[in-house]
């Protein structure tokens, strides 16, 4: 029975888009469980090592969680009843019922621990090589190769002398799954062996002979000549062999690798969106590893010809008409090592800056702008900071203004398309990059950060922290608090630092939930009392208070009204607030993203009596300016949302005495005659409600007639 059970424990057969075998493997585990209860230890002694190894392999490497748990339970039963499994208690502690529930943890962590016991190391490696690297599921193949990497230090000689020679022919075989797994396995094992050789101060030749090196080159030739290989496999192979420091310097194979990476980046538009991000990151990692190992000479400098060709090629592709190609080469520039950027920094920054600019032709290229902003921060971190240095070599006094201008431009990207607020990706990347560049400067040459730049950064972050989308509000809040509470050393020139530290105590930096509107808005509205932040917070609040999301609207509006109540008796605070409010409106006339929710917010504020102190003065400048701005905003507009929002504002303005009432009534009469039926009807309804609320504005003798006309007419 035992030979049959050992086969059944690994039985897996693909049929169509799924596989059969998990029920067979589960049943085999049950038989092993029954063995422990049915036989004396003496009877099972000849099979102990076989059964123990097979159960360990199933518990750690099976694709299905129920089979891994069944194998773990069978192993536990044998340890408890038989007591003859080698290192049984130790293994059970690491691979219990709950631990084997996570497949990645099983492959990459638990397997390494168990392989520390010599009885199990070789069977586990053999199973991965013979069964798992050619598995029908690509995820299992990739996990298996990573597991082989981690297991290599447990049996380095076996890997070098037995496993690698066995894998090399498989990597150029006929079966696609086997080739994929074998190539990745060769790459991972090679990398692990080279790291081991370096740690032990041994030559690479200790583990690799001429046949092995030729076999690795043959894999490269197979990859170049066969279009069936996926880009991820190609780039992983290049990265691992480069990190392994294989002796290929000056070999034509390096040119072939560079061509493959470039081809991958140019092919991104052809790749499905689900796989595109992984392949892009893999290609960029491969390029970085390749450059660091093979493009640097003994003096630590780049070959001028290679540097010129590589940088020029990457920068030229930044203006490609395909967005994904721009993305790929932007990230590639961000991954270049310092010796390749030296002397070419300005060329790289200028190229990336052009990608971040919005033009009619590429307005929808939000992902390219995002990746360019990420790349700028990476480049700055790579080249370092030197205040009086050359702008061609490092971040310095001559180029820091340009860098910040580009990054700050990204914070204002509100592009939308069929996917929604795609500009949010750009804003998120811009905020992260601003933080990284600022902290880089603070820790090296803080004097390069002037007060104006710091004010802009903190104000824009405050605005983003007050906006309606939870994800971006949370990211902005996190960056804002990171800069505020950074103290190695502190970020200079932060406006109102003491007040901010009182509103956002250091103890709450990690616990404040910016995603929750009920927690975020009561804090952020307190910044309205700080002159430097007032305009920007109001700009963000306008979109939230006038938005459509019920939770965000409720808490943002309530926080705003609470603040307004506190300043009602403070003339200077009210004047400052109203001035900023009108400035926000004036700066965003005809900008529907802001103006429509702003009109909705003004309607709510007027209805809640936020400006009652101004209703005792005839023709108060605030009401006059607000009326003129509203009138200008809806001039010749056919946007129903905007017109509906403006009706409430005009009705609210009726509470201001003087000539204002006549102007407001005239504007409402015009809306009663609007070409759109829905606008006529809504105007009549709101004017009716307005007259009930403010009955003193109409002569009592004609009030009934007016109300009858408004209510009975089929508007």
Task: Give an account of the 3D structure.
The protein is mainly alpha-helical and 715 residues long. Among the domains are: 300-445, Serine Threonine Protein Phosphatase 5, Tetratricopeptide repeat; 569-712. The chain has helices at residues 2-8, 22-38, 41-44, 48-61, 65-81, 88-94, 103-114, 118-132, 138-151, 156-170, 176-199, 210-225, 231-243, 252-266, 273-294, 304-317, 323-335, 338-341, 345-356, 366-383, 400-410, 423-444, 451-465, 470-485, 497-503, 517-524, 531-545, 550-566, 571-587, 592-607, 621-633, 640-653, 659-672, 677-693, 700-712; strands at residues 13-15, 18-20. α8 (118-132) runs antiparallel to α9 (138-151) and α27 packs across α29 (571-587). The longest helix has 24 residues, at 176-199. The mean pLDDT is 91. It comes from Ceuthmochares aereus.
């Amino acid at each position: 029975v035992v030979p049959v059970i050992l086969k059944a424990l690994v039985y897996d057969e693909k049929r169509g888009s799924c596989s059969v075998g998990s029920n067979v493997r589960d049943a085999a585990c049950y038989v092993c469980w029954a063995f422990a209860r049915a036989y004396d230890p003496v009877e099972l002694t000849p099979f102990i090592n076989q059964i123990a190894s097979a159960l360990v392999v199933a518990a750690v490497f099976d694709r299905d969680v129920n089979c891994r748990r069944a194998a773990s339970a069978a192993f536990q039963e044998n340890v408890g009843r038989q007591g003859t499994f080698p290192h049984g208690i130790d293994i059970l502690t690491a691979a219990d019922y709950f631990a084997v529930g996570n497949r990645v943890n099983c492959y990459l962590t638990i397997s390494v621990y168990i392989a520390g016991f010599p009885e199990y190391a070789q069977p586990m490696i053999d199973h991965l090589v013979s069964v798992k690297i050619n598995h029908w599921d690509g995820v299992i193949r990739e996990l298996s190769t990573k597991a082989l990497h981690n297991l290599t230090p447990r049996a380095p000689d076996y890997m070098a002398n037995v496993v690698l020679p066995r894998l090399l022919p498989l990597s150029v075989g006929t079966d696609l799954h086997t080739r994929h797994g074998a190539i990745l396995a060769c790459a991972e094992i090679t990398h692990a062996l080279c790291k081991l050789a370096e740690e032990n101060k041994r030559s690479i030749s200790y583990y690799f002979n001429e046949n092995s090196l030729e076999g690795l080159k043959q894999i490269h030739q197979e990859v170049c000549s066969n279009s069936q290989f996926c880009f991820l496999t190609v780039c992983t192979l290049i990265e691992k062999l480069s990190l392994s420091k294989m002796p290929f310097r000056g070999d034509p194979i390096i040119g072939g690798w560079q061509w493959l990476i470039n081809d991958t980046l140019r092919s991104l538009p052809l790749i499905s969106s689900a796989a595109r991000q992984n392949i892009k990151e893999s290609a960029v990692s491969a390029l970085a590893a390749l450059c660091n190992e093979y493009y640097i000479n003994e003096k630590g400098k780049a070959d001028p010809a290679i540097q010129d060709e590589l940088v020029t090629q990457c920068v030229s592709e930044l203006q490609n008409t395909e967005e994904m190609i721009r993305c790929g080469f932007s990230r590639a520039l961000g991954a270049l090592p310092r010796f390749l950027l030296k002397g070419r920094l300005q060329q790289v920054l200028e190229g990336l800056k052009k990608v971040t600019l919005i033009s009619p032709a590429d307005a929808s290229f939000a992902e390219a702008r995002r990746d360019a902003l990420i790349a700028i921060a990476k480049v700055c971190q790579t080249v370092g900071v030197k205040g009086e240095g050359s702008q061609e070599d490092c971040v310095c006094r001559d180029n820091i203004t340009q860098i910040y201008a580009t990054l700050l431009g990204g914070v204002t990207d509100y592009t939308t398309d069929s996917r929604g607020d795609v500009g949010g990706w750009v804003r998120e990347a811009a905020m992260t990059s601003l933080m990284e560049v600022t902290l880089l400067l603070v820790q090296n040459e803080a004097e390069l950060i002037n007060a104006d730049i710091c004010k802009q950064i903190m104000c824009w972050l405050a605005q983003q922290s007050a906006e309606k989308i939870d994800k971006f509000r949370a990211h902005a809040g996190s960056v804002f608090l990171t800069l505020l509470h950074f103290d190695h050393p502190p970020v200079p020139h932060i406006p109102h630092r003491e007040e901010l530290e009182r509103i956002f105590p250091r103890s709450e930096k990690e616990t404040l939930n910016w995603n929750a509107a009920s927690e975020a808005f009561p804090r952020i509205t307190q910044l309205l009392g700080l002159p430097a932040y007032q305009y920007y917070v109001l700009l963000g609040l306008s979109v939230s208070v006038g938005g459509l999301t019920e939770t965000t609207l409720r808490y943002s509006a309530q926080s705003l009204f609470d603040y307004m109540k506190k300043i009602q008796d403070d003339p200077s605070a009210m004047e400052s607030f109203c001035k900023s409010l009108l400035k926000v409106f004036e700066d965003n006339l005809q900008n529907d993203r802001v103006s429509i929710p702003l009109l909705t917010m003004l309607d709510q504020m007027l209805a809640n009596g936020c400006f009652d102190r101004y209703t005792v003065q005839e023709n108060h400048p605030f009401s006059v300016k607000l009326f003129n701005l509203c009138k200008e905003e809806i001039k010749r507009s056919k946007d129903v949302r905007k017109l509906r929002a403006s009706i409430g504002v005009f009705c609210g303005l009726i509470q201001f005495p003087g000539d204002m009432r006549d102007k407001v009534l005239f504007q409402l009469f015009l809306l009663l005659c609007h070409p759109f039926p829905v606008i006529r009807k809504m105007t009549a309804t709101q004017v009716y409600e307005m007259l009930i609320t403010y009955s003193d504005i109409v002569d009592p003798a004609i009030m009934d007639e007016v109300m009858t006309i408004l209510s009975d007419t089929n508007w």
